[in-house]
Amino acid sequence: MPTLGRRTAALAAVLVLSISDIVLAEPTPALAIAEDQRMLPYVEPGQLVDIGGRRINLHCTGVGGPTVILMAGIFSWSVVWYKTQPVIAQKTRVCAFDRAGYGFSDPGLRPQILSDVVDDLHAALNVGPIPGPYVLVGHSLGGIEARLYAQRWPKEVVGMVLVDTALAGEGLIDENQPGFDEVIGGESYAADMLHCAFLVVHGPLDPSKPEYNDCTSAIALPSDTPAALRTMWPRFFTAYYFADKVSLISSVYTHRYDSVDHRRLGVMPLVVLWAEDSWGKSGTPESVWFHQSYSKVWIALQEGLANLSSHGVHKLIKGSGHQIELEKPQAVIDAVGEVLGELHTGAKS
Question: Are strands 134-139 and 157-163 parallel, antiparallel or unpaired?
């Protein structure tokens, strides 16, 4: 992920699993920037599936099987896959998923924890109906959710791609690292996010106000974002969204889900991608030292995840930060293609 603790500080600064810095500056008048049309499908909901009085958004494209399910990191939703989903859809059916309270999905009955997320996804796929089997692609926190889904419904999952994710108890692991509290300083994160939740109770955040950047700085809009998406962007940052982030972070400060890191996946095709610069290289000398020291732990974690399957591989993505699907989308596309290819070869043999 790295981590729910570190990512928050790191991504907001440059805890957790996130996207990039948000850029809402208008394009330079003299240099009109062409809009990236790949984002336009995410301006509207895809398939809003009623799972019992509330709706979960699934954005599905392509045809064929197995169906690829895209599960975003803690800060984002289906839009983060706009560079990868259209290409994957040329090979098979692919659905991007919005957690409750994220994107176009209705909020849950309470702030989400990991088990709630996978229960909602399972219900939405069944009611959709989006028949399996599935290849799960999980970025950051989404990678933990993918493994939890596979643990609960093993017969439905035939392949997996984990994108810069970590162990289920990542928060507990990180806090045991020397220098973590001094460098990360994640104590105030929950308070900051709850403050944002209180701000939006009476309406969307105003992009012209300082608190807008304070509350949205972890998720990025590139300069070629279509005007339609840019206009509606503030509406996604609801009180439910901020509360869910705080609640989901609590899920990695528990041993409740540790079993997903030890459950063998047999011969399931598995690709584990990890970013060369997942933890960042800038900052104070203490920060640089911590990140260099922890990188050894991080590499070992990636190797361990790949070893969950006898057909598992882990790959370093050079030149990428945590958000591999945005910075090096071809790496994710290739990984999905590798899993699909192995499944198709196995089906014919």
Answer: parallel
